[in-house]
Amino acid sequence: MSDLEVDRARNLQRVDEVVRLASITEGEDLPAEPFARIGAIVEKIAAERGVGAFDVSPRFPTALADVLRGRGLGIRWRPAPFVPERECKTSEEIEHIRAAVRHTEAALQAGIERIANAQIRDGKLTDGEVALTSEAVRLTINAELLARECFCTTVIVAGGEQAVDPHDRGSGPLLANRPIILDVFPRDNKTRYCGDMTRTVVRGEASDEARRMFLAVKASKDAAEAVVRAGIDGQDVHAAASKVFEDEGFETGVKDGRMVGFFHGTGHGLGLDVHERPRVSKTHDILKAGHVITIEPGLYYPGIGGVRLEDDVVVTEDGCENLCLMSCEPFEI
Amino acid sequence: MSDLEVDRARNLQRVDEVVRLASITEGEDLPAEPFARIGAIVEKIAAERGVGAFDVSPRFPTALADVLRGRGLGIRWRPAPFVPERECKTSEEIEHIRAAVRHTEAALQAGIERIANAQIRDGKLTDGEVALTSEAVRLTINAELLARECFCTTVIVAGGEQAVDPHDRGSGPLLANRPIILDVFPRDNKTRYCGDMTRTVVRGEASDEARRMFLAVKASKDAAEAVVRAGIDGQDVHAAASKVFEDEGFETGVKDGRMVGFFHGTGHGLGLDVHERPRVSKTHDILKAGHVITIEPGLYYPGIGGVRLEDDVVVTEDGCENLCLMSCEPFEI
User: Fold this and answer.
1) Mutate to test the interface with B, among A28, A62, A189, A260 (most CBs of B within 10 A)
2) Domains defined along chain B, listed by start
3) What is the pLDDT at residue A226?
4) How far is A108 from chain B (nearest CA, A)?
């Protein structure tokens, strides 16, 4: 560690030894290029300790791998998960995620209340004299998160046609009578664990098609949660979620040059990162007890809009525990 | 791009072509391991376009480099800057940074006002009946940033002995009569450009040593800014900042097992990232017109505390333009 970081590193460390960088570099004639320089330093540390090869993450920098291999050291990348302990959560980790989920719910609630309290004028939502925008609701949500020492880099508040793109964060005036997707995935800064939840609401009256979509997404989410248990393939959870849409006649595929229907995975692992293993999608991936995963089916059709619902569940031997307490309803507020 | 992202990518793209991933993978028997899989996809795309080798960033993942080389493709990493256009800022980029600096100043001002309005009880700052904490001032600063569509991952509000570690973010009750460092480096979410500023204040009365430190840091910052111009070595700017401390008798080095004095660089490039090229430190790095750099000398002594002042300047042919308007004074508030 550099002189700037070495004292803090020694205080925070859970490792065997923290080495002061200057103790290696002082008086040495090192290359100027940063990776060549780091390579020379690593070679010196490795030689002092009799280390001849390193296991590294798949994302280890190519430049450093090339430099170290050039100096005769072995660099072997190991497929993910590089830290296998991260995959199945301990009970302590699950409590951290549960706490992050509580914060996520409070922030979602604040955003939904802001929308529920909006007036409707000429088909648009207003807050007194001004339009209620995605940005304003996002600020309400982030202010609630901030007060709880959480933060979410990209809160999604997307309505109307914007909600048809599942990753559009939303911007500008929100419309009445159209579904608004709120997707909040904060990290709790105290523990570093994440929550990830989505709700969809309509301020005013939803169209019949949007109401049908909402009921189908809710049924799809229930169907997926019903099959989750240790040993099942994520593929089969995804298939259970998809089957509800097929049975209800909601088609997925390219229409007029863009994807419509249910065209993302059903979920993903959640922990220190918002997205981690396992995947719950078309890909083969066996669920294990202690996995914490999202279940988040959605439907997206131009002209109608987008509907997505998302909860976080812990996989158990014989099923799953839903960490979320907040209802998916009411849809119309 | 996956089906989930392809429409948004086509809308946002500034590239020649966006390829739908499924158009490559459909009907193919691809490896399951993610990097082996990506490698197979890249090989297919490269073959279709007659590409035999790639220039990559030094941080390109080792796993993917190994897979692609194994498939006979050339992978050559290029030393930083991988995108050389990022180093010298255009006038449009400078205006984005200037705007980010305005937001940074407003947030710093809000934090300093919160401290200025605190009462002093038994040597501690209070806000009515409760202790004024680093966390509370951090929340004030982040709320101001959020309302401006900016965010800073780690606002530093560190007083007392915490401020002796330049990267301690600060926690718990703030003390009266001791320097409090406020370091704010937000990204403007509209433009993605960053600001980075530091002020140090004392609520109450500073000790004579702390006051001497403040005056020396201010003189060091002025001395560094006075020598900045296109063509100078960052080393020489750092030397000018350091010389003020040496002349005033402030020693730098290890004392009682920890670093004291001025033991970090004088500054760093600022742009789309908070830290980018060039460095203004002991390292050789020639400044160019259009570089935007921080100038941030500091002094840190256990028992007294930490003092750091930081502005952002644009390097010009014959000097520099300071983008910050906010004064470094008053020190005592």
Assistant:
1) A62
2) 3-77 (no CATH), 86-322 (3.90.230.10)
3) 98
4) 17
